[in-house]
Amino acid sequence: MSCALLLALLAAGDAPAIQGDYIEARTCDVWTGPCFANGDINVKGRQAVAGWSVDRGAWDGVRLDGLKVAAALLADGTIGTDREGEIKAVLYVDAKATESQAAALAAMARSLAPRYLSKAPAPVRAEIAFERKGLEAVLRVSDVAIVRTKAFCPCDAICCNEEQFFPAMSGATRVECAKTVEHAYAGTGLDGRWSDPDKRSAMVGRFAR
């Protein structure tokens, strides 16, 4: 076997089966100082919107190139803490997906975020748009949800001790914190709607598995 062929096989073996962009926003700061974050527990952060946009790859043998899946969540307490309690979630799968692709998208999201989505009911079809350039990203889920982000500026720091206080809800991700310009949910699948703009409450990055 030639060295070139061996390297090609090794590279193929290391390549992820599926990859793409990821975004989430919560109703509490995720880029913050520990004192502020601990003060928010059981006060803020019960709601969230998240989305995955597949660049290329397959799940359960089904190609998902260019398709998207999103979720809205409502918890009893602050998501990502031991106070979050019961979590309700609604899954939205790309309206362009075939039946097999829709099932694979839902399975992928449940596998990447089992703590939050394993008990979510059957997914809802929706027009989902996801655009990203660095930390500037926009996720739209039909007319029910939106997340729009941008990079932080120095004026966004409050205590100069900010850090990414919470991990991303999705596994297999590498994310950076971002400022939330828009974050709203107006669907009917959860017991409540919200709008929480202009906060330090988003994460943007990549997922790969």
Main features:
single chain; 209 residues; alpha+beta; twelve-stranded mixed sheet; two-stranded antiparallel sheet; 4 helices; 43% strand
Compressed to H and E, one letter per element, the order equals HEEHEEEEHHEEEEEEEE
Q: Round the Cα radius of gyration to an integer and report it.
A: 18 Å
Number of helices: 4
Structural class: alpha+beta
Helical residues, percent: 10-25%
Oligomer: single chain
- Mean pLDDT figure: 93
Write down how many β-strands occur, each being a DSSP E stretch of 2 or more residues: 14
Quick one: overall form?
A: globular
Largest sheet: 12 strands, mixed
Q: What is the first-to-last residue Cα distance?
A: 28 Å
What percentage of the residues does DSSP assign to strands (E)?
Answer: 35-45%
Number of domains: 1
Give an account of the 3D structure.
With 209 residues, the chain is of the alpha+beta class. The chain is 18% helix and 43% strand. It has helices at residues 3-14, 34-40, 99-112, 114-117, and strands spanning 18-26, 31-32, 47-59, 62-63, 68-75, 87-94, 124-126, 128-133, 136-141, 145-150, 163-164, 173-185, 194-195, 199-208. Strand 12 and strand 13 (194-195) form a beta hairpin.
